[in-house]
TrEMBL record:
It is a multi-pass membrane protein. InterPro entries: Na/ntran_symport (IPR000175), SNS_sf (IPR037272). GO terms for cellular component: plasma membrane. PROSITE patterns: NA_NEUROTRAN_SYMP_1, NA_NEUROTRAN_SYMP_2, NA_NEUROTRAN_SYMP_3. This is Transporter. Its main location: membrane. It is found in: Membrane. Keywords: Membrane, Metal-binding, Sodium, Symport, Transmembrane, Transmembrane helix, Transport. It comes from Darwinula stevensoni. GO terms for molecular function: glycine:sodium symporter activity; metal ion binding.
Length: 133
């Protein structure tokens, strides 16, 4: 055990944290958009297949390795084999990319929420001379 890192107080804390990591804004925003874009119900068949055969096993693998080793992804995969350190780096880069896009979407949401309290909303009219009514 690494004394520098914190530990879960109970199983319920871990379950809630894992659920918060797995379920995010993409479930509400991106998934319905992709279903609409790629044909509705026809998109659900490959999505469900990929979810059960690749998504959930990879998620459980990451959770298991992370909890067992209590190390960062690069150190965890690097300790298994020096050739696998690229998987840890890719995992880290993917987490950073996801965090940046998620924070940008939240920033847009908060910005437009704040702007919506103005009496004259900026998107109600264009305000240009060349526009028609």
């Amino acid at each position: 055990m690494n004394p520098e890192r914190g530990h879960w107080k109970g199983r319920f804390d871990f379950v809630l944290s894992a659920l918060g990591f797995a379920v995010g804004l993409a479930n509400i925003w991106r998934f319905p958009y992709l279903c609409y874009l790629y044909g509705g119900g026809a998109f659900l068949v490959p999505y469900t297949f990929m979810l059960f055969f690749i998504g959930i096993p990879m998620f459980l693998l990451n959770l298991t390795l992370g909890q067992f080793s209590a190390l960062t992804p690069t150190k965890c995969f690097g300790n298994m084999s020096p050739l696998l350190i690229g998987i840890g780096i890719a995992s880290f880069v993917g987490s950073i990319r996801g965090s940046m896009s998620y924070n940008m979407i939240l920033a847009w949401s908060l910005y437009y929420f704040g702007i919506s309290f103005q009496p004259d909303l900026p998107w109600t009219h264009c305000g240009q001379d060349h526009n028609t009514y």
